[in-house]
Design a protein that fits this description.
- With about 425 residues, the protein is mainly beta.
- It has one domain (about 1-20, about 25-385): Methylamine Dehydrogenase, Chain H (7 Propeller), CATH 2.130.10.
- It has five helices and 30 strands.
- The strands form seven sheets. The protein has an eight-stranded mixed β-sheet with strand order 24-25-26-27-1-30-29-28. A four-stranded antiparallel β-sheet has the order 2-5-6-7, with no helix packed on it.
- It is globular.
Length: about 425
């Protein structure tokens, strides 16, 4: 387990934690609470919220001074194909509802460079860029146009850190699974231009490409994950797919989500509710935590535990895994730290009412945003932080959501 400790230490340093005091380090092992500060019912029509994204701090330039805007924005994609945008400050304020999508949303992300541009990817093979300053008008479209006129259904997408390249992962279609690429600058504002596809890869995955993650600072490095069990790393500066594929990692499972832990290591979660940590040059994961490890309480049934997302940030002391469990008493939610060779609760989350589908963290305010099957957006903060700041306005509440939808295909691993 020495690799876990070293990897987490490196991540903390890269996130600015090199000056952490001994007292701060001791607090990492302490158990705390996250308290609900805001709650908003997005839909009363039993629509799930499938995913959430947000904007990090926005530095605004004015004559003679610079300041950081106190508010941030979040976007929530619903199961009825709509997307709702909120401004988060002292309360949750609904800005706009985007209703142009006609098929299920497979991903939603803000532009890395602008809090006014929101990208949505849909299953019909289209990625749209919407300008929130123009009432959510679609200002650019990125579509795969083939000779027969059939588009490839998307399953995932991501945007490079410099906001210049978009990658879209497709479902397994026509015997292949594709990673498609578009240049944001080439498209411009010509909505009807359907020839903006740069190209694609189709030999590296054999099944649905469920997740894509550009490197946080290297705009030409991309990680992909698939239901075929592989995580692949690509150097997009290379002239061919064979040369671009620099690393292929076999998780022996079906990859649900992945992300960058450090500059050269990855985390991934699988459809069987397993967390794996990888060094890119290794042949196997250096740490694996299965569904049984999620049952950290004596009352937990592993079959009722589920993964939400791994957060590679040290805003709560060190990276953590957000997990949930369904019991007769309600829907539990907690943050788990990696402590030696096991998972331990670092924060209980008080007052959750739904099965959570996705989460996102605002780094500046240390706010955790969760969304789920009850159609609710929740904003959580540490209890000790709340004691030092004025309480935020609590919004409308509703009852528990529906059961977790396990629609993913069974894989014979």
């Amino acid at each position: 387990m020495s690799k876990i400790v070293e990897s987490l230490k490196r991540l903390n340093v890269e996130n600015g934690a090199e000056s952490r005091t001994e007292q701060d380090t001791e607090k990492i092992g302490e158990k705390g609470e996250l308290i609900m500060t805001m709650e908003e019912v997005v839909s009363h029509d039993q629509n799930y919220i499938l995913s959430v994204c947000g904007t990090q701090r926005q530095i605004l330039n004015f004559p003679m001074k610079h300041f950081i805007e106190p508010e941030f924005r979040i976007g929530a994609a619903l199961s009825d194909h709509s997307c709702v945008i909120y401004s988060v400050g002292e309360s949750l304020s609904r800005m706009i509802t985007l209703e142009h999508n006609q098929t299920p949303i497979v991903g939603v992300k803000f532009s890395p460079n602008s809090r006014n541009i929101l990208y949505t990817a849909t299953n019909d093979g289209q990625i749209s860029a919407c300008d929130l300053r123009a009432k959510g008008k679609v200002v650019a479209k990125f579509i795969d146009s083939t000779e027969d006129g059939k588009t490839k259904p998307l399953a995932s997408f991501d945007i490079s850190c410099d906001d210049r390249l978009i990658a879209g992962g497709t479902e397994h279609t026509g015997g292949d699974a594709f990673i498609l690429f578009w240049d944001v600058r080439y498209n411009g504002s010509k909505i009807e231009n359907r020839n903006n596809l740069l190209g694609g890869y189709w030999e590296s995955h054999m099944d649905d490409v469920t997740c894509l993650s550009f490197h946080p600072v290297k705009q030409n490095v991309l990680a992909s994950g698939s239901t075929d069990g592989l995580m692949n790393l690509f150097d997009l500066t290379q002239p061919s797919e064979d040369l671009a594929l620099t690393c292929s990692l076999n998780t022996e499972s079906s990859v649900d989500r992945l992300g960058w832990l450090t500059d050269d290591s990855l985390w991934c979660t699988t459809h069987t509710h397993t967390l794996q940590l990888w060094n890119c040059e290794d042949a196997s994961a250096y740490a694996t935590f299965t569904r049984s490890h999620l049952a950290v309480s004596q009352n937990d049934d592993p079959d009722n535990c589920y993964l939400v997302r791994f957060h590679a940030t040290n805003v709560f002391g060190q990276p953590f895994l957000l997990t949930g469990s369904s019991t007769a008493k309600g829907e539990n939610l907690r943050c788990l730290n990696i402590m030696k060779n096991r998972l331990e609760t670092c924060h209980d989350i008080v007052g959750n009412k739904q099965i959570v589908r996705d989460s996102w963290i605002h780094e500046k305010s240390d706010c955790l945003v969760t969304v789920g099957e009850g159609g609710i957006i929740n904003v959580w903060r540490q209890a000790e932080t709340m004691q030092q700041s004025s309480p935020c306005k609590l919004l409308t509440k509703i009852s528990n959501g529906k059961g977790r939808d396990r629609h993913h295909r069974t894989k014979p691993y």
